[in-house]
Amino acid sequence: MDIEKAIGYLRGYNGPEVKLMEVCGTHTAAIFKSGIRSLISPGIKLISGPGCPVCVTPAAYIDKCMEYASKERHIFLTFGDMMKVPGSDGSLSSLGKDGNVELMYSPFEALDKAEKNKDITFVIGAVGFETTAPAYGLLLKEAMRRGIENIRLLTALKTIVPALSWICENQKTISGFICPGHVSVITGTGIYEELARKYEKPFVVAGFEPEHIAAVVYDLVRQTESGKHKVKNLYPGAVREEGNKEALKVIDDVFTAGTAVWRGLGAIEGSGLYLRDEYGGFDGGSRGLDKDIELPPECSCAHVIVGEKDPDQCPMFGTRCTPIDPYGPCMVSAEGACGIWYRNR
Amino acid sequence: MKITMAHGSGGRSSQELMERIFGKYFSNEILDKMEDGAVIEMEGRLAVSTDTFVVTPLVFKGGDIGKLSVCGTVNDLLVMGAEPKYLTCGFILEEGLELDMLEKAVASMAAEAEKAGVTIIAGDTKVVNGAGGMYINTSGIGIIPEGRNVSAALAEPGDAVILSGNLGDHHACILSARMELENGIESDCACLGDVTRALFHAGIDVHTMRDVTRGGLGTVLNEIAATSKTAIEIDEEKIPVSDEVKGFADILGLDPVYMGNEGKIAVIVPAEQAEQAEKAMKATDHGKDAKIIGRVTEAREGAPVSIRTRLGGTRVLDMLYGEGLPRIC
């Protein structure tokens, strides 16, 4: 497709308002990076959905992480993003030197550590969508093969389709969805077919280069205008209809679906991934971590996550809530909508 | 052999350390007098700077903490338009540090100082409890030759912004080492005297220079815009980044415009001299990838630094917030 023509079309668009939601934090960042908002008609709204796994993690989960980080003979392993997310009483980083927290770059680091230090239990904070779940699955398979017993997984892994269904049910004004590129590499595009049929909305998978962003916005606007609701794959270099079968098998071998709480959305049936009984010995107590903190009435994270509000419509945005001193989870994570808006405001 | 608390006692062991390592590499007329302070004679406008180096790992591809501690301070002087002359250095050594490691760092400092034409005229060593780490502070002094007037306050609307080379090499190199990732990325750690001198020799009226270290280009340009009360606009497509660093940054969710460098400067010159300045920089070893990346404009409402994107849109380039932690998905 001719990108310049597509942008020209989007700039001149003067039809009814089109609201497109991206459900991947990396897309939120890519949309800002591309500068596309400054190029297209104000009649086309790009809004950020619940695409950051860190942002939708409830406080009870953070509390549990902190409990492990404060426990003797335990080390809590996490990615950097989780450090500042507020639980009901502080965050992992607020533990400072008292916390047994180690930042990891890959969950597989846990294997060697656990093997070398048998008297310490290594608890891994597993947060993410389908993209990250297979790695945790492989990790446990490997731990089992090597007979490593001092590893626990504290999971807040989630799947995207139940969340998309929730949004389609509850946010009727959204015209179409920019489907996550990385998640779709694992899941394939087939998972969006039923949603597209049932809710009569287009779902288009996109990559992360500026040209991909322009192409997906153009396609969704054209589909909306002509009343179409097709699933399309505009990221064919990486995404296949059937997904990555091996990765899906690992997820299925190790995890089973259950109810999970999403900050801002509430409990969604079948949207969480929990360890199957065969791997139950590795579970760090991941179920039932549902309680969330009472955000102050002004904090709009819950509205931002479902696309009801843009981050800068929150009264705390940029004043009492900034990336340096975040209040809401959407400001904390590098992938969170508020943080991305703030850095690009 | 390892560093012990005795090496910091000021007694016999300290003296041995002086003779075996510092004396061996740093020997010069001023230092060898072994007085409590160095006495030097200088005239004219002077530039002074100090910086402390705490990098881990102590040795990385393309350098070590010793080389870094000389380059960092020398570059701070160079970007003020100065010719660096003298350095002082303070070492904080943690107990358990390998003597070989200290010797390696000191040898690199001496070699880099000689290359940069600066003399190390004073030093100090302390030993503290710890786990074999090492920290170095260097302070430097240089003379600003007649006719040079370089300051962040002097960037003017209409000026061009030139970057001396690829972004992100040092940051990616250090992060790779910490993450034990194998790749060919080398730190850009270097003294940039060849680049700054080339500009002055070509007769360029350099308004502003800044070394693009921690916080990256985004932070440096915001500082310049704030100090000079201007706005700056850069072109995304012109920002030089090597393919390897770009791939590395993409995977980890880092943005090269916020990645640290140890051998890159941003230079602001009058628009009509921009091409000549770029050419002069390109002819040097450390400026061969120099590129005009943008322009200074009148101050305006809102964020002062913006990027023109590949699609032709614009976005704000803010300062770096937080630590730039790698993302999780």
How are the SSEs placed, and which strands pair?
The complex is a heterodimer of chains A (about 350) and B (about 325).
Chain A: H1 3-12, E1 18-22, H2 25-34, E2 44-48, H3 59-69, E3 74-78, E4 101-103, H4 109-116, E5 121-128, H5 133-145, E6 151-158, H6 160-170, E7 176-179, H7 181-187, H8 193-199, E8 203-205, H9 210-225, E9 231-233, H10 245-254, E10 255-262, E11 266-275, H11 301-305, H12 329-332, H13 337-343
Parallel strand pairs in A: 1-2, 1-7, 3-4, 3-5, 5-6, 7-8, 8-9
Antiparallel strand pairs in A: 6-11, 10-11
Chain B: H1 12-26, E1 45-53, E2 59-60, E3 63-64, H2 65-78, E4 83-94, H3 99-116, E5 119-128, E6 134-144, E7 160-163, H4 169-178, H5 193-201, E8 208-211, H6 216-228, E9 230-235, H7 243-252, E10 265-269, H8 274-282, E11 291-298, E12 305-308, E13 314-316
Parallel strand pairs in B: 4-5, 9-12
Antiparallel strand pairs in B: 1-6, 2-3, 4-6, 7-10, 7-11, 8-10, 9-11, 12-13
Helix pairs in contact in B: 1-3, 2-3, 5-8
